[in-house]
Amino acid sequence: MKRVAVLIEMKDGKVKPACLGAISAAHDSDAELFALVFKGTAAASLETLQAHGIDRVIEITSQDGPIQWNADHWARAGIQALQYYNIKTLLGLASVQGKNLLSRIAALLEAPLVMDCTAVNLSEHTAVKSQFSGRAVAEFKTRGEYHLYGMRPNALSAVPSPGKAILEMFQAVLEKSKLRVLEVQQGLSDRVDLTEADIIISGGRGMENSDNFDILFECARPMSAAVGASRVAVDAGWVSHTMQVGQTGKTVSPKVYIACGISGSVQHFAGMKTAGIIMAINLDPDAAIMHKCDYAVCANLFDIIPALTRKLKEITG
Ligand SMILES: Cc1cc2nc3c(=O)[nH]c(=O)nc-3n(C[C@H](O)[C@H](O)[C@H](O)COP(=O)(O)OP(=O)(O)OC[C@H]3O[C@@H](n4cnc5c(N)ncnc54)[C@H](O)[C@@H]3O)c2cc1C
To answer: Is 249 in the pocket of ligand 1 (CB under 6 A)?
Structure first.
């Protein structure tokens, strides 16, 4: 039977929901599904993974015990696990960590890797991703012994598929890496990662300045949303480039996207058109986004956002 593995990412001791979407991408392949986990997280992830159709959870350790985050070590240990279990197809997320790991694994294995996929057919070794700012969709076929795919976070929904997963330990043999992790800084920000957020609230030129973005952060907090921005807001130096959504920024697929003071240029749309629900708050009823969204609020964002924040705080306490 064919074997497919999914690289699992954890956050706050739980499997990232986007990983469950990546697992659902592998369901159709009729393969035995493996989950690869690091850092002693197998026990915490087992229940969730078996509820989503994983057959075997492999906790990868080394001769020194659990492997702390080091992209080089994780990639080399991951490859040893793939080779030991004879797994030829690997899925992960096109997240910050996933891009780092998958590209290293692909380079070490000299294997093809397709990043930011919105769908895969693991029997045919094909992957679908959008091109030309989302105006076209291309199908890529990978050839070779190994096939690697990075799924766009949240592009696929998690599909529950209850089963019984076996938990196994795999001990890799690692040499000293040339890459040294000096410090991992966590918890410096309580802000939600843009590419993995279920809800995104973004600001554009209509925000007027950097300080006004605070009202978006305040509104985002009670709904655990991430804050994004248009290129105009980034180019003006109001917010960091890491928050830019669009053709030259990040591609996002949240369940809800709230665009505040954003006109809806083709380039911005390229980064968020796959959102489940799009809501626009704009003064101009003829702004492009007002005709391309699910809910159009024709009003001043400085009236609507504080009112929305108040309501959300009321609801969430
Ligand atoms: C090669 C290339 C790549 C690009 N890549 C990107 C990209 O990745 N991402 C991106 O976003 N853009 C990108 N752009 C830029 C893009 O073309 C637009 O210029 C940009 O998206 C416009 O940003 P905006 O909607 O914030 O500003 P504007 O188009 O100026 O729109 C501002 C909107 O705010 C509304 N408004 C103003 N005040 C208020 C208020 N108080 N309340 C409510 N509404 C208000 C206005 O009615 C208006 O519709 C790219 C352009 C090029 C050429």
So the answer is: yes
Strands 113-117 and 147-151: parallel
| CB distance 133 to ligand 1 below 6 Å | no
Residues in the chain predicted with pLDDT less than 70, given as ranges, are 28-29, 186-191
Ligand 1, atom 52: closest residue by C-alpha: 267
Overall pTM > 0.85: no
pLDDT value of position 90: 98
Residue 206 CA, ligand 1 centroid: distance in Å: 8
pLDDT at 190: 58
Q: What DSSP line would sit under the chain, residue for residue?
A: --EEEEE--EETTEE-HHHHHHHHHHGGG--EEEEEE-TT-HHHHHHHHHTBT-SEEEEEEETTEEPPS-HHHHHHHHHHHHHHTT--EEEEESSHHHHHHHHHHHHHHT--EEEEESEEETTTTEEEEEETTTTEEEEEE--SS-EEEEEPTTSS----B---PEEEEEEE--PPPS--------SS--PPPGGG-SEEEEE-GGG-SSTTHHHHHHHHGGGT-EEEE-HHHHHTTSS-GGGBBSTTSB----SEEEEES----HHHHTTTTT-SEEEEEES-TTSHHHHSSSEEEES-HHHHHHHHHHHHHHHH-
> Which atom of ligand 1 is nearest the CA belonging to 229?
11
Q: Is the CB of 283 under 6 A from ligand 1?
A: yes
What is the Cα–Cα distance from 112 to 145, expressed in whole angstroms?
Answer: 9
301 lines ligand 1 (CB under 6 A): yes
302 lines ligand 1 (CB under 6 A): yes
Ligand 1 touching residue 304 (CB < 6 A): no
Structural domains of the chain ordered from first start = 3-172 (3.40.50.620), 194-316 (3.40.50.1220)
